[in-house]
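Record minuted for completeness.

…
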Amino acid sequence: MNLDEKLDAWQLIQRNEFKQACLKADEDYATTNSVLHLRNKIYALLHLKAYSEVILLTKKIIEIRNGETESDFIYQGIGYWLLDEKLKAVEVWSSATKTKYTDAAGGVGLQVLLYFASVVLKKGELKIAVTKALKKLLKFKTAINWPGPLGSYLLDELTEDDLVSRVSAMDILKERQMCQAYFAIAIKELEKGDQKKYLKRLEGCISFGSLASLEPMYYMAKGEIGM
C-alpha cells in the first residue's frame, strides 16, 4: 500500500491531488454511504473546475438528504454561476432559504451570495428582497454569530474596520472568516463601481491560506478573477 492509499479525500485535497481525491471520495462513499465523502469530493471538483460535475453531485446529495442542508444548494449555485448560468444560480440559492441546516447566523452567508448576485446582475428587486431578508435575520440572537457581521456590513451597519475586528483570532477560523469578510468588502467596492478595488479585494479573498478553500466565497472569488 502506498502513502496515497492511506489518505482520505480531504487529505488528498490538501496535497493538491484533486483527481485522486475524487476517486477516494467515491471509494469511501461506496463503503460507508456517508455523504461527508461526497461533500469532500465537491471541493476537489471545484479545484478541478469541473462545475457540471459539481452540479450533478450536489443534486445527488440533495436528493439523498432531502434538501436539508443549505450548503449543498450553495455549492450547486456556485456550479451554475461559474458556468455562466447566473440566473439559474440565483434560482437555486433562493430555493435554499428554508433548509433545516444553515450557517451559525441562520443563513446570512446565503443572503450574502444573493446580495452579490443582485449587484453583479443589477437586479434591483432582488437586492430589495435580500436586504429585507438580512434585516429579518439580523434581528435574531443568532446574528451575533459569524457570518452575521457580513450582513450588518452589507447593510452599512458596520464599517470595514468593524467587520474585520469581528473576525476570530483563532487561526483555524481566521483564514475562513477573512476570506468571507474580503468577499463582502469586494461586493461593496463593486456596488460603488470601483472595478479595480473590487478585483483587488477578491484577490485578497483567496490569499488567507488553505483553510479559506473551505468557504464557498473562495471559489466565487476565483471565478470572478479568472483563476
Notes: The chain has a mean pLDDT of 96. Residues 171-191 form the longest helix (21 residues). The chain has 14 helices and no strands. The two ends are 35 Å apart (CA to CA).
